[in-house]
Amino acid sequence: MAGVAMVHVQDPRVRWSVRAAHVVRIMPAAEWRAAPPVDPLAALGPVPRGGALARRVVVVRCADGRDAALVAAGAIDVGDVDAAAVLPLPEVLAGAAPQIAGIIALHDASLSLLIEPPDVITLLPWPVPVVGEDLCPSRS
What we know:
By secondary structure, the protein is mostly beta strands. The chain is built from two helices and nine strands.
């Protein structure tokens, strides 16, 4: 079966992934100067204080051609996922979190939420600010 390259973020709330084809770059959050970063897991609540700090963003190309930064609050790795391991989101959950396109069953038997950045940007109100000193440290 064909593999799909994915960027995986081990967020303290839940692991999420985005297709590598959508990713433009990964960079320090402090260097992102465009619209505020989007937290693709905002519906799950803020990043726990004791969790990893979101010091990086995954910059993705959106359906309308804009670049947007997704908060990466955890370790990032890149790897291929078997296309058959990408499962549709159960119908009952699909409408509740439109930015989540599916569930990925990874080779180590863990799961990851598949985020589709073009949908994240068009379905969430723009901009979606990320509030908190942990995510946007002051330069003072």
